Amino acid sequence: MLAKTKVSWRGTTVPYELPPMRPPSEARSLLIRVMRGCPWNYCTFCSAYKELPRKTVMRSVEEVKGDIDELREVCDEMRRQGYIVEPKTAFLADSNAIIIKTADLAGIIAYLLEAFPSLERVTSYGRAKTVLAKELDELRELRKAGLNRLHLGLESGDDGVLQRVKKGATSEEMIAAGIKAKEAGFELSEYVMPGLGGRDASERHVEGTARVLNAIDPHYTRVRSLILTPGTPLFAEYEAGEFQALSRLEVAREIRALVERLEISGRLCFDHFSNPPFLRQDWEGYQFPEEKEGILSTIDSALERWAARLPACLPADQADRTDGLDGQTDLRDESLGPAIGTRL
């Protein structure tokens, strides 16, 4: 069993197991680790859970409830010291909380809401295949128990790209899972990854991703531009010359192409540092279709300013492919190589 992380508050230390990551939109949430790692863990671009066993390490219901009790004690101590502690949101980690037996997860959620009656939203990650494996009534049971929002990783809507990065689901399965999650009553966030197709599959990646998103019409589409992370299989492909990564300029153009093709009614969010800095990076993002033209205008303006700063003697195709990597994601530094670093 993994050792628990110690959480201290003004001299009070409790054993509490923290998850390794959470969505940016859950920055103010209680973090409840209901499982460890990723039950799939084959995705070639992801480094998040590679140090954990591929097989899911489940936590017992009683262990999770113990963490909830300890969190409640810490919050009560904070209140006794004069702090206002009324959490509104909670996130169930790690990568795929809904893989837990439905009755067990519903019981955990009920216990959490009893301990923290101020909670208005409970969220978790999930996988398309897990959504499809659950009966609709099971998903509705989780929704009724208090699980409000699901974050699903689409990444790409092109089957070739999905297969290459070992995502473990087809584009049609992604569509079916997204529609099923909405039918069960969840607020749905779908994640997409500009740049994941590389130079060879860029056009197919954009077209397929737009097609899937338009078919699902999620409440939120969250953009996570590709960051090549050392230690991942995709980074090894990049180093071996087997994956031709897009420059940041090309990624910005790919984002524009995706936005242009979207016919959705939800919100498009760029709430991550991997995205171009000229796009608003708040958690609620841009409302479609009302703000679609505004996004396109913003991107066009940025690309025009960028092009004006390139050396006049440098052909556009060479500018796109110029290396000069410095680990930054700010387009203003004129470093036009791909983004390399860590996503966490």
SSE layout:
Blueprint (H helix, E strand, L loop, with lengths): L5 E4 L2 E4 L14 E4 L1 E2 L20 E2 L2 H20 L8 E5 L8 H14 L5 E6 L1 H6 L2 H10 L3 E7 L3 H6 L6 H13 L3 E6 L9 H15 L3 E4 L9 H7 L8 H14 L5 E3 L16 E2 L4 H18 L6 H6 L23
Parallel strand pairs: 3-6, 6-7, 7-8, 8-9, 9-10, 10-11
Antiparallel strand pairs: 1-2, 4-5, 11-12
Main sheet characteristics = 8 strands, mixed
The CATH topology of the largest domain comes to: TIM Barrel
Average pLDDT metric:
87
CATH superfamily of the largest domain: Aldolase class I
Q: Which quaternary structure do these chains form? A: single chain
Task: Kindly describe this structure.
- The chain has 344 residues and is α/β, with parallel strands linked by helices.
- The protein folds into two domains: 1-126, no CATH class; 128-310, Aldolase class I (TIM Barrel).
- The protein has eleven helices and twelve strands.
Quick rundown:
This protein has helices spanning 61-80, 102-115, 128-133, 136-145, 159-164, 171-183, 202-216, 233-239, 248-261, 292-309, 316-321, and strands at 6-9, 12-15, 30-33, 35-36, 57-58, 89-93, 121-126, 149-155, 187-192, 220-223, 267-269, 286-287. With 344 residues, the protein is an alpha/beta fold. It folds into two domains: 1-126, no CATH class; 128-310, TIM Barrel (Alpha-Beta Barrel), CATH 3.20.20.70.
Question: What are the main properties of this structure?
Answer:
344 residues; 38% helix; 11 helices; two-stranded antiparallel sheet
